[in-house]
């Protein structure tokens, strides 16, 4: 690939975003302040609405501002959902509950929709991870406050869970992990791998994400005693809605 | 904010990206295959170089393809650096080293540049996290294979580390944590918070990131015995270069 051309002057929406960013980072605009609206920016710079919107989108995508429906764009107020990777070593034991980033800890209720459950041949990757050529797959989408925030696709070794409630829409009290426990395969260890990337169009659509916003992808394997893998779960999170917390000893 | 306009037909670069994505996801193009070059795309669609480049950038940003300098754009080959959040519960004990995503495990050597060390008043956030109004700050940039991949900014309570090698460019054998140990404050517990967002221009410049590529931000507190916080480290990672691994028990 040839090198990108040198830009002598950034486009106007970039320069507007740069000015607003400076005001946020220097403290002229503070947490919770409303940014100038599209109409005000259009009038001040003599530009089209789409350009004004692009300027505001830059700051939203950088996590410095958030839109509120029908009200405008506000400085940060990043109040993501806190997802605990490990509950056993909980923060309560350490640092008197010192959180690095603010988050909404009042466990906002999830709603689950788009549940789809099927028995299918495993992909090459899943077959390797679960030692199983066929899998029961549970796909669902989680929403909080009416906004979709997470897609999750769980895979279980088909022969292990066949005929149990893991294959039904309602997995019963305690959920799928309790059903694995009924079989003598309670998960006792987890490994999670975390990456971030831009969404594919189908993911952006399912999660109703604004353009230019990244995803966090968490892939988890649950192991029962003896190192038997009993679940592979791929979770796709709207990055603007989450902070992941992990606690561990040295 | 008003709603975005309905697009009846996506722009040409999107349609080219959609076609290439379909070929990747359906297996017509396979891991390691070279994508059509800018010149080929320009000729086939009768478009400008910038538009062809935009189409390829979409796939790069989605993590489906990677550019190789002077050679073209290739299907995926996502071989990130694996960062272990917890070494104690290492994967070797579980799942026979089953990795979910491929990564380069031959510990490629890091080089460190741009080290800056200073004693400064703590920000409000850092003062709260470290129970200290002044901090020694170590800023550095890590590169792998000549490419910058991570910015890290460590904060230590100033009075705790004053006069030790933690305040020097060379922290000595075992690094800053060993020096904390010399003082009787070995880190024994860690909490990490992980989020993803788009980079600010200064971050994209320091990490030499292509436009539209997200960051992973890892914020970590190290605690000594008794729950005393001894370090706050904010790490900013090029998301295309990393997979984070966490292992924990149920």
From TrEMBL, chains A, B:
Name of the protein this chain belongs to: GntR family transcriptional regulator
Family annotation (InterPro entries): Bact_HTH_transcr_reg, Chorismate_lyase_/UTRA_dom_sf, Tscrpt_reg_HTH_GntR, UTRA, WH-like_DNA-bd_sf, WH_DNA-bd_sf
Signal sequence residues: none
Pfam families: GntR, UTRA
Occurrences of domain HTH gntR-type (ranges): 10-78
GO MF annotation, one: DNA binding
GO biological process, any: negative regulation of DNA-templated transcription
Annotated keywords: DNA-binding, Transcription, Transcription regulation
Transmembrane domains' residue ranges: none
């Amino acid at each position: 690939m040839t090198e990108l051309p040198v830009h002598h002057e950034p486009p106007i929406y970039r320069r507007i975003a740069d000015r607003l960013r400076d005001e946020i980072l220097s403290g002229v605009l503070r947490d919770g302040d409303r940014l100038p609206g599209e109409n005000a920016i259009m009038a001040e710079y003599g530009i089209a609405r789409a350009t004004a919107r692009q300027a505001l989108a830059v700051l939203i995508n950088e996590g410095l501002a958030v839109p509120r429906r029908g009200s405008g764009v506000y400085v940060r107020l990043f109040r993501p959902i806190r997802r605990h990777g490990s509950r056993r070593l909980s923060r309560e034991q350490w640092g008197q509950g010192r959180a690095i980033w603010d988050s909404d800890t009042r466990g906002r209720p999830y709603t689950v929709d788009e549940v789809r459950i099927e028995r299918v041949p495993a992909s090459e990757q899943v077959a390797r991870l679960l030692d199983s050529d066929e899998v029961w797959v549970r796909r669902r989408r989680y929403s909080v406050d009416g906004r979709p925030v997470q897609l999750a696709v769980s895979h279980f070794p088909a022969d292990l869970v066949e005929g149990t409630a893991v294959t039904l829409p309602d997995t019963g009290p305690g959920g799928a992990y309790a059903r694995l426990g009924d079989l003598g395969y309670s998960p006792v260890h987890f490994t999670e791998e975390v990456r971030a990337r831009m969404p594919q169009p189908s993911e952006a659509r399912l999660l109703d994400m604004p353009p230019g916003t990244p995803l966090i992808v968490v892939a988890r394997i649950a192991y029962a005693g003896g190192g038997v893998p009993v679940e592979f779960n791929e979770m796709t999170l709207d990055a603007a809605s989450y902070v992941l917390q992990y606690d561990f000893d040295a």
